[in-house]
Amino acid sequence: MFEHIHAAPADPILGLGEAFKSETRSNKINLGIGVYKDAKGNTPIMQAVKEAEGRLFKFETSKNYLAIDGVAEFNARTKALLFGADSEVVSQGRACTVQSLGGTGALRIAAEFIKRQTKARNVWISSPTWPNHNAIFNAVGMTICEYRWYDAERKALDWDNLIADLSRADAGDVVLLHGCCHNPTGIDPTPAQWEALAKMSAQKGWLPLFDFAYQGLANGLEEDALGLRTFAATHQELLVSSSFSKNFGLYNERVGAFTLVAATKEIAATALTQVKAIVRTLYSNPASHGAATVATVLADPELRKSWEDELSEMRNRIKQMRHRFVELLKQYGAEQDFSFIIEQNGMFSFSGLSAEQVDRLKEEFAIYAVRSGRINVAGITEDNIHHLCQSIVKVL
Ligand code: LMR
């Protein structure tokens, strides 16, 4: 029966990595997948992570199964990071967290939970968005509705159309929001816009789902949680998918979390039993190493400081590269104004390059980016930036 199977198209993001590996030109640059690179072009293991791993190696006494919801300390620390250690949501016991296989795993748990335990059938997703959002909600049979996010002319948030589109979302619809560092545009709402969105959501009775994969990469761990915390202050119920892939550099350890906030502690505890039932059918229980590493770092003041300092360095390097990128594009003769790139948050920049221009970058200059025009600014280094900017100017 397998002879009837059609080949699936290559993944628009991960497929690029595979193509990049077989690229033979020595000046090749991978600006596709969202992975941080340091000034030398390496994706480092953070110092606090290395230290925590050493401790785990030394003191771990058993490889027994974890609980279905994972490492308890990790779950508690995740909640504090999301909502603030002293937040009401946490102190009232209204938030339940389960460890997941990265942010993608958390989104899939969210989708399964919504499908099995709520009446919601529509999920509102920004246009553009991370392509896997569509795939994940399609996989559970939900109807995808889009709200406009990006004004290509102004290279800014398309606020009026966003509000116009979301005003059609009904009570009980799921609205998926990027907590910070919107993927792919890098454009986030202002504090006042978060307030307005939270107010609209509470009034209309949406179920907000935050995809929060980049905490700490826009302006800081606390600052980046502003949107989520604004919603948490005004909603009895919401869902969060969060990830430690980027802010801990733990990409291949698959560490993320699904968090559910309910109106009361009791409702949250009951809902958690259903989340655990979902996990049991998907992968039974998660792997320990990555989550134990994160918990070790977050629980130890010294390691935590080291992690926060290194995360700040990463954030600052990305910001510097944004400035340098804009400066060199101009220097190499770009007539367009690219200064909008400086204002964008996180790893990505929506460059405005067309799919054809991105194809030319790959074919003629060995530069790999997502065909939407998304560029991973965190992959730019002083060594590759000249080739990058000269090549972009040639395809403009
Ligand atoms: C990205 O958008 O590049 C990352 O989130 C990695 C992925 O899984 O697509």
TrEMBL record:
One Pfam family from the record: Aminotran_1_2
Top enzyme category: transferase
Record GO cellular component, one term: cytosol
UniProt superkingdom: Bacteria
Coiled-coil stretches noted in the UniProt entry, renumbered to this chain: 304-331
Key words, A-Z: Aminotransferase, Coiled coil, Pyridoxal phosphate, Transferase
Entry keyword Coiled coil: yes
InterPro entries the record matches: Aminotransferase_I/II_large (IPR004839), Asp_trans (IPR000796), NHTrfase_class1_PyrdxlP-BS (IPR004838), PyrdxlP-dep_Trfase (IPR015424), PyrdxlP-dep_Trfase_major (IPR015421), PyrdxlP-dep_Trfase_small (IPR015422)
CDD domains listed in its UniProt record: AAT_like
Reported cofactor(s): pyridoxal 5'-phosphate
A Gene Ontology molecular function term of the record: identical protein binding
Subunit structure: Homodimer.
Classification via NCBIfam families: PRK09257.1
Protein name (database record): Aminotransferase
UniProt organism field: Mesocricetibacter intestinalis
